[in-house]
Amino acid sequence: AALASDLRQAWRDNHLKIEYQPQVGMDGGMTGVEALLRWEHPVRGTVQPDEFIPTAEETSLIIPIGHWVLEAACAQLAAWAKRPDRAHLSIAVNVSVRQFRHPDFIDDVMSCIRRSGIPPDRLKLELTESLLASNIDAAVAKMRNLKDMGVRLSVDDFGIGYSSLSYLKRLPIDELKIDRGFVKDILTDTNDAAIAATIIGLCRSLGLEVIAEGVETDEQRAYLARQGCHRYQGYLFCRPLPLEQLEAFMQRLP
Ligand code: G
Ligand code: G
Ligand code: MN
Ligand code: NA
Asked: What are the coiled-coil residue ranges (predicted)?
């Protein structure tokens, strides 16, 4: 309850911030970023999203907060669209189950895209497998609506949830994101290595893009690259950064 009222206050006082973490392709070039919420608490310091997203969901604060993240991402994409050296970049936005199920979600995404005038395929929505836990037909129908708009869809934290392989081929998705839990010990845990390799192989045979998160060392990257992984995200390349620092990071890229 304390967390809920604190969060409500933080939302009112603009203490929520967005950081952006680069994603890189096989050639090492940046392909886009993931938008990640941060809570700059005046006393507690930075509160990580794992600690407050569940509360945001329970209190429905995730609806206005999620809308704000989406607006910010589209505004940033609109700014990048005007620059030849940035126009190719995508922004991935995390969508919680509560947000996805909201009846206005599709209209919200559509109006954000229209008002910002961005190419819809620069926006990527990260969905989680838990969306599919109930009423999969309704979830798939909504995903199709989003795909019809031209938005790209990614399944976050893949491998830890409920999705069965038979559902996977029915889903109108573009990308799977290998959970960082599998990447962490990829060089020492043969099960994790096998799971990551299997997810990559699965994506390649289904024609899906695959991105690994939580890549911290070049050895992890090299293993994933040998399996054919398309993209990477993790501290090896860059931490999540506030926008100004992200711009500085991009300035330094070759
Ligand atoms: O930044 P960090 O790795 O601590 O984020 C942890 C998790 O918090 C992410 O994997 C993501 O699922 C969730 N998260 C971060 N930003 C957002 C957001 O804007 N909306 C939602 N729904 N979840 C987010
Ligand atoms: O959406 P998701 O929860 O998967 O977001 C990714 C989370 O992983 C973010 O909270 C981000 O801060 C965190 N993260 C990003 N890169 C790394 C990394 O290389 N190592 C670890 N441990 N965490 C990372
Ligand atoms: Mn994510
Ligand atoms: Na994830």
From this structure: none
For residue 213, the ligand 2 atom closest to its alpha carbon is: 16
CATH code assigned at 44: 3.20.20.450
pLDDT digits (tens, 9 = 90+) for 174-206: 999 999 999 999 999 999 999 999 999 999 999
Number of domains within the chain: 1
Q: pTM of the full predicted structure?
A: 0.96
Task: Tell me the residue range of the domain where 149 lies.
Answer: 2-167+239-252
Per-position b or e across 66-88, b if 16+ CB within 10 A of its CB: bbebbebbbebbbebbeeeeeee
Q: Which atom of ligand 2 is nearest to the CA of 240?
A: 12
154 lines ligand 2 (CB under 6 A): no
Is the CB of 96 inside a 6 Å radius of any atom of ligand 1? yes
Residue 35 alpha carbon to ligand 1 centre in Å: 8
Q: 25 - beta bridge partners? A: 231
- Beta carbon of 37 within 6 Å of any ligand 1 atom: yes
